[in-house]
Amino acid sequence: MAAPSSSATNIMLAIPEKKTVGVDLYRPLRNYIVFNYSEREAQNLEDDLETLKEMRNNIERFSAADSLSTRRDLLQNYIKALTTIESRFPISPDKDHVNSVTFTWYDAFKNRNKASQKNIHLEKAAILFNLGAVHSQIGLACDRSTVEGRRQASHSFIAAAGAFAYLRDNAATKASIGNSTTVDVSMECAGMLERLMLAQAQESVFENTIAKGSTPGVCAKISRQAGLYYEEAVAALNVTPLNQHFDKTWISHIQLKATLFYAEACYRYSLELHEKEEIGEEIARINSGITALSEAKKSYPRGTSQQILDSINKLETKLNFNLDRAMKENDRVYLLRVPPVNSLPPLPAFSLVKSMNMNDLLDASKVRMFATLVPDNSAKALSRYTEMVDDVIRTQAEKLQQGSELARVHLKEMSLPDSILALEGHSVLPPALWEDVEAVQVSGGPAGLQGELQQLHDLRRVNHELVVQTEELLEKEATEDGQFRSQFGTRWTRPQSNTLTKNLQDRLNGFAANLKQAADSDGKIDRSVRGHMALMAILDTRPIETALPSLGRPIMSLDANEDAVVGALKQSLRQLEALGAQRAGLEDMLKDMKTKDDILPKLMTSTGSYEDLFRKEITKYDNICEEISKNLQAQEQLLLHIQAQNNQFASTFNIEDYTASCEKCYKQIEGAIAKYREIKENINEGLKFYVTLQEAISNIKQQASDFAMTRSMQCREMVEDVQRQISGLSVQPPYYHQPPPQPGGGGGGGDGGGYLYPPQPTQQLGPSGP
């Protein structure tokens, strides 16, 4: 049921295709056209009939020699053809329909089980299933030892997930009606396969993430989400109707994958915890991963992939090694309490995949097959009825939206339900402000600024060291040149070092000036952080709502009816919420009614007036329109009642003072956010500056190194020439070397406030010459 990947990465599963038996579509469909239209119409549609016949024959004759991409394209074209004929050829046992066509398909996972139906629904479901299966096989065939191969594999598994999701949402229910059906095309199985394909897509992304050397925190989130997808597939496999349908090794594979990626997430997350010196939680996370792997190893059946078992053993070894290290460090240095595993929050997860939307890919609206079977007058009549339905839907949808907006505006004006939540100790920030605070806290918050400042200082130090090292290179070369110049006098004819390195020295001086000015800017940032930390400290409050003022009960009560006032108002708000939920349901009902409102078969067979048919059909929307009107009337009365109740509530609990306190707190938070963003932007600007400067200085250092090496080679050759001249051994006139080209060019300095960026270095060859 599964084939191993050819790569050295973990084994994955491909879904086998369903098998079918031959069926003749050509003759029954042609007879239907002749009987309901004419022989001429059948002759005109001969090409379409032959094309459909050839498609079905190719579906039946699939062999391993066919390429998977060809198979995929065939399935996509055939499903669009089925969509086209569905509305034109009623296939059913009815004597007036196409009743001699029976589609038979075998279960992909239990080949002895089969289903036969005299309708197109099983055929569509089976083709969608096979489309997902082929996409999974394409994904498995990709070379996941390369970055591009893993990317292609992930894309194919995403497409497979999309096909199975489309099967679940659009065809599974219809195909499962009746006694003759198979489990593989059920909603439950299609949903499980979608989760499995998403898991394998996320796993491919995880493999690429590891290859790129991403941080442990990022790897942990991606790994955990892969595990969650596998866990969802396992959950579906453990309940009816799937729990008795799949081979044990197949189920075991998915269970082990779920455990493996949970443990992998624990391992990666523990690495991040170790970097943060949160040793207690690190030990707990490692123990959790080890426990999960140990339990999984106890229950896997015979035939389980050795590759997965090797991966589990390898990961278990790494976890045990890190556990031993962490426990020793904790015992000797940190002495932190190890929290119980059940007290830890869930591991963070982040999905980088989602099922491909197949609507556009399988859209049959542009397929011209059998297009002439719908007469123009019927098409125009259908368009007219569609316009009538659209008008009803549009009018009612506008009423529903207006009702929801009216309720939202009224509640906002009355500060509901925020004031009720505040009384219960659950104050809330305005959504936009809450999102701003959340963004600040996710980015580290004020408490994280010190670490970023340290990073800024470290980068400045590295740049300064590079400048010093470069200056020392040039100084050493100049000293050597000066010594030989003193020794040989006028015979030492090559240019002096300081004339060749002037441009380099100028640029180094410019970089030194840059660093001095940057140090001043860093100092301003340091002072700004210290000076405004008290202002920004509120942003480190978690949850931020605890920093808001509280709404308390009145100190003195005249009639002690506060609880009754609050209870009545909360009851009315629950009623208002119920009306809103009812409106959402009514809107969904409208859309569902429109989707199912297919009067084309009636139009094709109607002998009376189209207008009479339309008036009769459109009345099906009357009941829901009446329900919408009742809902809006009830809401109008309820809002008036809530207004009166809220006035009493505001008077009892002095809401005016509370609102003023909240506004003051909001402004404080807004000010803190503004200052944090300003400082954060300055720090980011500094980091960007130092990274750019480091690249420029490194370039100059390389040029200086090349220059020094070339001059050293020249020096040795020239010493030999001069010594030969002195000794009189040379019979040739002395050869004077051309001076090497001057390295460098352009200054790195400048004036102005803030960080001053060096010019972008151009790629240069080092000085050359004899």
Automatic annotation (TrEMBL):
By its UniProt entry, which SMART domains does this protein fall under? BRO1 (SM01041)
Ranges for domain BRO1 come to: 11-407
Organism's domain of life? Eukaryota
**Residue stretches in coiled coil:** 35-65, 569-596
Has keyword Zinc? no
InterPro entries per UniProt: ALIX_V_dom, BRO1_dom, BRO1_sf
Tell me if Cytoplasm is a UniProt keyword of this record. Answer: yes
Q: Which PANTHER family match?
A: PCD6 INTERACTING PROTEIN-RELATED, TYROSINE-PROTEIN PHOSPHATASE NON-RECEPTOR TYPE 23
What is the name of the protein in this document? BRO1 domain-containing protein
UniProt keyword terms in alphabetical order: Coiled coil, Cytoplasm, Endosome
- Specify where the region named Disordered lies, as residue ranges: 731-770
Q: Where is the composition biased (Gly residues)?
A: 744-755
What does the entry list under GO cellular component? endosome
Name its cellular compartments.
Answer: Cytoplasm; Endosome
UniProt main location, coarse: cytoplasm
A single BP term in Gene Ontology: protein transport to vacuole involved in ubiquitin-dependent protein catabolic process via the multivesicular body sorting pathway
